[in-house]
Amino acid sequence: METAEHSEIPAELPGGSGSDFISEFIKEDLKSGRFGYVHTRFPPEPNGWLHIGHCKAFYIDFSMAERFGGKCNLRFDDTNPEKEDISYVEAIKRDVKWMGYDWEDREYYASDYYEYLYDLAVKIIKKGNAYVDDLSDDEISEYRGTAVPDKNNITMTPPGRNSPYRDRSVEENLDLFARMRTGEFADGAKTLRAKIDMAHPNLLLRDPVMYRIRREHHYRTKDKWCIYPMYDFQHPLSDAKEGITHSLCSLEYEIHRPLYDWFIKEAEVFPSRQIEFARLNMTHTVMSKRWLLRLVQEKYVSGWDDPRMPTIAGLRRRGYTPQAIRSFVSQVGIAKTDSMVDIAFLEYCLREDLNKTSRRVMAVLKPLKLIIDNWPAGKVEELDAVNNPEDESAGTRKIPFSGELWIEREDFEEVPPPKYFRLYPGNSERPGNSVRLRYGYIVTCVGCDKDASGSITAVHCAYDPDTRGGNAPDNKKVKSTIHWVSAAHAAALEVRVYDNLFAPERPMDVEPGKTFTDNLAPNSLEVIPSAYGEPCLAQAKEGDRFQFERLGYFVRDPETGEGGKPVFNKTVGLRDTWAKISKK
To answer: What PANTHER family does UniProt report for this protein, alphabetically (predicted)?
Structure first.
């Protein structure tokens, strides 16, 4: 075992909010001398793209190593060739780096350890603690038995039955295992099983399978192997191979820990320690690569990076920042029991970050023409606008102002409802209403145009030239300010407005006969093909983030719309629902 001098232990995780049970375990191990250093690992299986639940996992893995002056490996647990692919490896590496973590030269693959794992399996066979079994998968399940409730509804696990091949000699098992490796037997014809206890109350310890025969092409080892180790065998021994001190896993692996320890003991390797934490569960979201893959394959979404997906790539395309995600994960904290986090809290963390960093611009999603009747023909002014009131260093910009503007359709009502303070025309009982055009002038509604069907096509206003940029006499105070863009100078945009992909808070709670896809929200995407924005938006680059004033936060998408229009995705609205929830 390696040893190292250990410096003073800091009180908190980087970006965290205090101590937690994992760090307490690690402190005990360091003080007791069980380990002289800290070495963790993030071990994704390359069978899909990472989602926000993985962010919690590798935040803990990397941050614990950083906190205790240790290291963290990136290891791909690639022992299931049917479902794994190099494209998933590259996607995982890209996402972990984007989140701000660097594994330096510590990139490993379980497939690099196949020979090492095979030799350890042979070692366990020689000790008489593993055997080659001829039972099929279904027969193994039948012999193992299942947990059943008794008359008091208490779950019982009646003893299983030993396989008729359990007592093969060491020599016969060594011979059969070697022949399994050379491809002498058909897929599924034989397995290698650990010999533990078929009456153990933990079903995972009832002679678990260590190796199975699978003639599948592996993306790295090609066709060199036709037997592949099972996760429960490979995982602890790969940890041991790398000298991992603390194998940090989500809570569902707690029941696997006795098996983790058993394989380490029987293989007589480095004594890595497994510690479990509660996984991240979030409302309106599914946290399983299996279910996310189904959404992709069945084309409920456009791909793994669809902005409605909880994948890191989807969140990045939606406009999330690594800082916001890390803030969210650190504030959720590390617990030992599962819980459900409101997605509104993630959005709160996002707004906190975007509010400080996003440039303000004006854009109109549902455009309606506003004509200033008394504006001098052909005149164009440049108005000064603040780029970010939270950041003085962001400076100001010039925006063109003319006699024809685009405003939001909802900012005009021919017959206004009570307490409506935006534009509406006058009548015999009241004058037309006045509003301030953001950064510009106060205008008063004097009428509107309609088409043959009665739909409003334009609003007519008069402006007061003495009210530019916030100036206004006492008799010209208004109750509303609206945004706009100059019609002659506006950039044509396509805007995509996203909502939760799933309508219920718990998408996996389904009625009998239905699946989680029946819980998909029917209107999770609205495409607005004819929006307008300030001229600067035409030059926005992929990933550029903005606050569209009064509307929310938006990001430039990699795609372009019809006619080459830049596409902007709505990241999150301005309304902070979490602040209201937490206040209650």
So the answer is: GLUTAMATE--TRNA LIGASE (PTHR43097:SF5), GLUTAMINE-TRNA LIGASE (PTHR43097)
**CA nearest neighbour of 565 among 491, 503, 515:** 491
pLDDT tens-place string over residues 128-156: 999 999 999 999 999 999 877 666 666 66
Run of H or E including 104: none
CATH architecture assigned to 363-490: Beta Barrel (2.40)
The answer to whether 289 is a known catalytic residue is yes
**DSSP character at residue 423:** B
Residue of 27, 45, 83, 172 with catalytic role: 45
Q: Is 501 labeled as ligand-binding?
A: no
Cα–Cα dist 223/227, whole Å: 10
Residue 74 in marked binding region: no
Determine which one of 71, 279, 496, 565 is catalytic.
279
Q: What is the three-class DSSP state of 545?
A: strand
Lowest mean pLDDT across 310-314, 315-319, 559-563: 559-563
CATH dotted code for 21-281: 3.40.50.620
pTM for the predicted model, two decimal places: 0.90
| 138 has binding-site annotation | no
For residue 60, pLDDT over 50 is answered with yes
* Residue 231 among known ligand-binding residues: yes
Domain range list for the chain? 21-281, 282-359+492-583, 363-490
Confirm whether 8 is a catalytic residue. Answer: no
Quick check: helix, strand or coil at residue 461?
strand
Q: What contacts 108, CB < 8 A, 6 or more positions away?
A: 41, 73, 74, 75, 76, 238, 242
CA distances from 37 to 14, 101, 273, 475, 504 (A): 18, 20, 13, 73, 45
Strand partners, 237: none
**Superfamily for the 282-359+492-583 domain:** Ribosomal Protein L25; Chain P (2.40.240.10)
168, 206, 241, 289: the active-site residue:
289
Model confidence pLDDT, tens digit, residues 532-564: 999 999 999 999 999 999 999 999 999 999 999
77 marked among binding-site residues: yes
